[in-house]
Every structure is written in C-alpha cells, then in structure tokens.
Amino acid sequence: MSSPEAKQYNRVMNLFERAGLNRLRKRMLTAVQGEILEIGTGTGINLPIYNGASRITGIDVSRERLLGTAERVAKRPFTISVADAQQLPFADDAFDNVVGTLVFCSIPHPELALAEIKRVLRPNGRLYLLEHVRGLTPISRRLTDWLQPAWFALQGECHLNRETAVTVEAAGFTIEKKSQHGRGLLQMIQAMPE
Fold this sequence. Notes:
The protein is α/β, with parallel strands linked by helices. Helices cover 34% and strands 29% of the residues.
C-alpha cells in the first residue's frame, strides 16, 4: 500500500514521465544486467523496466517512499530497504551495477555516496545515472543557478544546479557514455571506477 507521500510524488512525476522521462529510463535500464543496486528507489518506478537483472536491491532514505514498491515488481527477485547512499550497508564488491535516477540532486554529500558506490561495485562494474543537472547551455545554466535558492527553500533537498558528471569524475570514475536530454537539463551517464 502506498503512503500519501508516495502517491503525491507519483502524481507530480506522471507529467514528466509522459513528457519523455519514462522513455529515457527505458533506454538506460533495459540493458542493465546482473546483481543491481538501485540508489533512491523511491516508489519503484524503475523496477519493472529491468530486463536482465538477476536480482535488484533497492534503497531509499525514506520508508514512506518505499511503500508500494512491491506492487511494481511482482514475481521478480528484489529486496528493498531503508538505507543511506552515503553509508551503504553492503559488503565490498557486492553488485555488478549501481543505478540512480533523479537522486544525486538530493544526496547531501554526493562524493561520499560515490565512494560507497565504488566500494560495493564488483571489478568491471558500472554506474548508471539519469539525473537532472545544472543547465548545459548558457541559458539553462543561468536559469538553474537563478532558481536554485528558491527551489531548495521550497522543498528542502533537491539541488537544481549540481554538475553530476564533474562530481562522478572527481570521485574516481571514468565516464564511458554521456548524453544530454530535456534541453540540456537531464544527463544520462555510464561510468566505471578507475
């Protein structure tokens, strides 16, 4: 059963999903295989998309957001738990791939989360991210910088103007693929630890 917080989140996100976000999720996730850790699983919108997963472990810092995820993945091997990406409760080399969609904007210290992701990834593992980012064009860059203080004050956790690809590289990952979408406000990243 979904919580009121999860239902509200799904209502808001439905607009973005129909506008093309779901298509981007599918493009990124259908080829991800093996043991997968999903950071910021939330209401579980990604869970039905994985085709090659042998097992999915989903985490979120909010128990309320995780309510209802089981409804999305009937008959699929998955585990969900409340956990912080900055202090992952998993052994070293535990996952083939780590996925995050629209989550790094709200992690207080993304460099800590990326260090933890490197720790739990197996050799030759991959990090897959679909994130909204600081604008990638001059106009969208100014817009995200200008809106950031008011946006953060209104909802308290999302940073509109994070440069996630730069942070990923600084954390010791090599970006293998990167693409921009949504007029330069969304970025898809595939990276592996150096």
